[in-house]
Amino acid sequence: MEESSITGENKDFVQGNIDKIKQIFPEVFEEDVLNFEKLKSLLSKDLINDEKHYGFTWYGKNRCYNCLKQESYDTLRPKMNESKNWDDTKNIFIEGDNLRVLKILRDNYTNNIDMIYIDCPYNNGDEMIIKDCPDLMEHSEDNLDESEFFVNKKSNPQFHTDWLNMIFPRILLSRDLLKENGLIFITIDENEMVNLRKICDEIFGKINYVGEIIRKTKTTTADKNTGFNLQHDYVLIYAKNIDKIYLTGEEKEFSNYKNPDNDPLGDWKSSDPSAKSGSDSTYFSIENPYTKKVDYPPEGRYWSFSKNTMKKYIESGKIKFKKEDDGHRGFIFKTYKNELKSLYNPVNSLFATTSNDESEDKNPYLNEVGTKDARALFDKDLFKYPKPVILIKKLIKYSTNGNAIILDFFSRSAATAQAVMELNEEEGTNNNFILVQIPKQIVQERANDKYAKDAINFLDDLGKPHFDVELSKERINLAGEKIIQNSENESLDIGFKVFNLDSSNFSLWQPKLDKEKPLKSLYDTLDENINNVLQGRNKFDVLYEILIKEGLNLSVSINEIQEGLFSVNSGQYIVCLKDNVDENISNEITDECNPNTCVIFLEKCFNSNDSLKSNIKEKLKYNIALFKTL
Predict the structure, then answer these.
(1) How does pLDDT run across 301-359, given as a tens digit for each residue?
(2) pTM for the full model?
(3) I need a surface site. Which of 114, 231, 362, 455 has the fewest CB within 10 A?
(4) Which of 334, 385, 464 is closest to 128 using CA atoms?
(5) What CA–CA distance (Å, rounded) separates 599 from 617?
């Protein structure tokens, strides 16, 4: 049995990068310390002079990296009373700054996300963006307060810089969460498309650029006195590893594949047996043994097979001679459905109508469709510019295998959650979502702000505070109820677990000595670190922080064996959060554990009794794999 302790610090960004280097170049480490000179010598052929090579930079870029390197002691606190179907659902909704949340998710979702979809701020001059580090945001306006949001006006001298400092670290963190075959889809318009491409080229590598979808968003718009009508935005697509991904579009049309002759090879259609190029060996006559009709390849073409191959095709039935002369070629050349390399079409880069009729039915990707999707649930417009649900459903369908985790860390209207649930019902898939949204207070600043007025009235009717996350959670709830009412699948997951971003539940080991009474201050600090759970935090707050630090996902199964004693993931972990224990606790744990179990105790469980702690460890050492304390 091994023994260790747990700290409240989240996964270190720098250490994570060092670990990646260690996997590739273990020889550059000496006594577990990275030797940069050795690393340089290994890569000397590829080293470049920073002053001479092309690169994309802006004010604050280096400090974005510094923000990522800062120690994080944040955690996620479960909000069971705000959740739906807590015990059964695997869907997650997280309230909090998405940068801080992404840092936490690196602990337990690294290489675990199948697809990321984000509808990030377009930076069009009237949109709220997030202020993370005050020293990264400089503004000409003197009235900027200390809130986490500000309107990034085009008059701001650092208009693009502030947006870049907001989006760069978030996308950088999100890359680590993707599986090797994972994909990220980002909606953006012309305001920041060029900059976003450069950012993603740097983070994912140009080689992992998959493409961009052009989405027709509207039929008419103001032309800004130029005579040009801008009607589209983009969905930018990058892979974590482009060699590991393959997009599957809509299923091909197979109505022309039939089997009238009961061919044992299955459905087929008649195809062109000729090819553009060939040789003397593929230019010959073919005589029908029934009608004696002789066929040659069309002028300037060749048969797509040789004489030897033709004989095999005749024997197998792929070439079938007609018994009557119908004035056409004397044989049928079959293409079997099961011969197709793929049953699906490629994903097209244009999401728009192909008809002159630009109504909603012909183009389901218009902005107005997204508005109607949400209105159908609330009977009023409570979100600005929500994306069409069908857009997100298509992206999920084209890029995942039906048993995926989809992350959206700019949740906004929660359309992604609705898309996941609808697709599960329609396709019989088993996808789950993780949504992250920064709570933003809804304030009616103008009398004619109908969005804010209606949202406030709606939330008042529900008795909810005036924050946009409340609208998002209610949308998930309403969408789920609507879906399940029309579904025959009673096990469909329409629930969601709500978590709230907060500081760690544990006091840190940071003795602050009072010069006048140093001994008392040290004793106080020692006591705080033994009884180290902050006031106001409950057992589930503590439990989930421990599980996050141990790398378990937020939907892991939990069984409370007795008050304060938990079995996690069918005995993978036993966690004891009791205020006091005696030696009998070892018997109760032994009944639930297995040789691979990790047992975790809070130090306060032992009530400063080292002998009790030692006796419990001794009784457990042959029954478990690891003993941890916190």
Answers:
(1) 999 999 999 999 999 999 999 999 999 999 999 999 999 988 999 999 999 764 444 45
(2) 0.86
(3) 362
(4) 385
(5) 10
Cα separation of 398 and 348, whole Å? 11
Q: What is the DSSP string of 11-36?
A: PPHHHHHHHHHHHH-GGGEETTEE-H
Beta bridge partners of 419: none
Give kind and range of the element (H or E) at residue 470: helix 468-485
pLDDT (mean) for 431-450: 92
> Crossing angle of helices 367-378/468-485, nearest 10°?
80
pLDDT per residue as tens digits for the range 86-104: 999 999 999 999 999 999 9
Which H, E and C letters describe 33-84, residue by residue? EECHHHHHHHCHHHCCCCCCCCCCCCCCHHHHHHHHHCCCCEEEEECHHHCE
Who's near 45: CB < 8 A, 6+ residues apart?
Answer: none
The pLDDT-based confidence of 48 (bands split at 50, 70, 90) is low
Q: What is the pLDDT of residue 318?
A: 97
Tell me how far apart the alpha carbons of residues 164 and 322 are, in angstroms, rounded to a whole number. 67
Instruction: Output the pLDDT for position 52.
Output: 61
Q: What does the pLDDT read at residue 140?
A: 35
Say how far apart CA 30 and CA 374 lie, in whole Å. 58
Q: What is the pLDDT of residue 236?
A: 98
**What DSSP state is assigned to residue 403?**
S
SS (H, E, C) 115-132: EEEEECCCCCCCCEEECC
- List 4's β-bridge partners, or say none: 628
58, 3 in Cβ contact below 8 A? no
Q: Are 506 and 533 in contact (CB under 8 A)?
A: yes
The burial of 421, by beta-carbon neighbours within 10 Å (0-12 exposed, 13-18 middle, 19 or more buried), is given as: buried
Q: From CA 74, how far away is CA 100, in angstroms rounded?
A: 7
Task: Say how many C-beta atoms besides its own lie within 10 A of residue 538's C-beta.
Answer: 13
pLDDT of residue 42: 64
Q: What is the pLDDT of residues 164-210, one digit of tens each?
A: 999 999 999 999 999 999 999 999 999 999 999 999 999 999 999 99
**Angle at CA of residue 337, ends 336 and 341, nearest 5°:** 105
| Average per-residue pLDDT for the chain | 88
Relative to beta strand 626-629, strand 2-5 is parallel
**Phi-psi region at 370: left, alpha or beta (left = phi > 0; alpha = psi -120 to 50):** alpha
Strand, helix or coil at 416?
helix
The set of residues, in sequence order, having a beta carbon less than 8 Å from that of 151 and lying 6+ positions away, is 126, 127, 128
Local structure of residue 338 (DSSP, 8 states): G
**33-34 and 29-30: which strand pairing?**
antiparallel
* Cα-Cα end-to-end distance for the chain: 17
* Burial category of 626 from C-beta neighbours within 10 Å (exposed 0-12, middle 13-18, buried 19 and up): middle
Q: Reduce the DSSP state of residue 506 to 3 states and report it.
A: strand
Is the torsion defined by CA of 169, 170, 176, 178 positive or negative?
negative
Number of residues in the chain:
630
pLDDT in tens, 94-136: 999 999 999 999 989 999 999 999 999 988 767 667 666 544 4
Which residue reads 């992206």 in tokens? 395
Query: CA dihedral defined by 580, 586, 592, 595, rounded to 10 degrees?
Result: 130
